[in-house]
Amino acid sequence: MERKRKKSETIAGSGELTPAEEKRVLRARAKALAREPDEAETGESLEVLEFLLAYETYAVEMSYVRETLPLRDLTPVPCTPPFVLGLTNVRGRIMSVIDIKRFFDLPAKGLTELNRVIIVHDRGMEFGILADAICGVRTIPLAELQPSLPTLTGIREEYLRGVTSGRTVVLDGAKLIGDRKIIVHEEIED
């Protein structure tokens, strides 16, 4: 009898259960464990890196993110568009850093110690994106992505993959990296 009471306490916590209640609890647990996952759980999902830009949450697919690092030793480059912040040295590799807020015509916040550079890459193209802060990595079910918000107009809409119910703007990494507008190719005549 003492053994049954200890078993009941283990199942229910501090309260005691009758044998019928214990059986009901165990059946409910078994049913919950044996249930088929719903579509949102089994559907395709997207692993993304979330970051802040001008007080809004953005995300980019992790398959395009190589790493994140603090913004340090940025060298400005003259005669470049305003969205090009400059160059930085990442373990011996010279990489350009763009201010995506300026590229998207978002309000500028200024540089702080919290700013991070997200190194994005694809076959042969690699550059850094300035973020106000990194929020973290999460998985978003593709079924949760909704079409554009009315506030996302202009250039941002071109790079949009979708928007989550929590208003995270998921950028299309392939379009962003592959866009020729980001590549600066100017030659100075003598």
Task: Give a description of the structure.
Strand 4 and strand 5 form a beta hairpin. The chain starts with a helix and ends in a 12-residue tail after the last helix. It has 2 domains: 2-35, no CATH class; 42-178, CheA-289, Domain 4 (OB fold (Dihydrolipoamide Acetyltransferase, E2P)). The strands form 2 sheets. It has a 5-stranded mixed sheet with strand order 8-1-2-10-9. Strands 3-6-7-5-4 form a 5-stranded mixed sheet. The protein has helices at residues 2-12, 19-34, 39-42, 100-103, 155-158, 173-178; strands at residues 45-53, 56-61, 65-70, 84-90, 93-98, 116-122, 125-131, 133-141, 160-163, 169-171. It is built from 6 helices and 10 strands. The longest helix has 16 residues, at 19-34. It is of the alpha+beta class and 190 residues long. It is elongated, with a radius of gyration of 25 Å.
Can you describe this structure in just a few lines?
The chain has 190 residues and is of the alpha+beta class.
- Count of discrete domains: 2
The helix/strand order is: HHHEEEEEHEEEHEEH
Strand line-up across the major sheet: 8-1-2-10-9
Dominant shape: elongated
Helix content: 10-25%
Give the CATH level 1 class of the largest domain.
Mainly Beta
The stretches of 5 or more residues where confidence is low (pLDDT under 50) are: 5-14
Mean pLDDT: 79
Q: Give a short account of the largest sheet.
A: 5 strands, mixed
- CATH homology group of the largest domain: CheA-289, Domain 4
CATH fold node name of the largest domain: OB fold (Dihydrolipoamide Acetyltransferase, E2P)
> Tally the helices: what do you get?
6
Radius of gyration over all CA atoms, rounded = 25 Å
Beta fraction: 25-35%
Class by SSE composition: alpha+beta
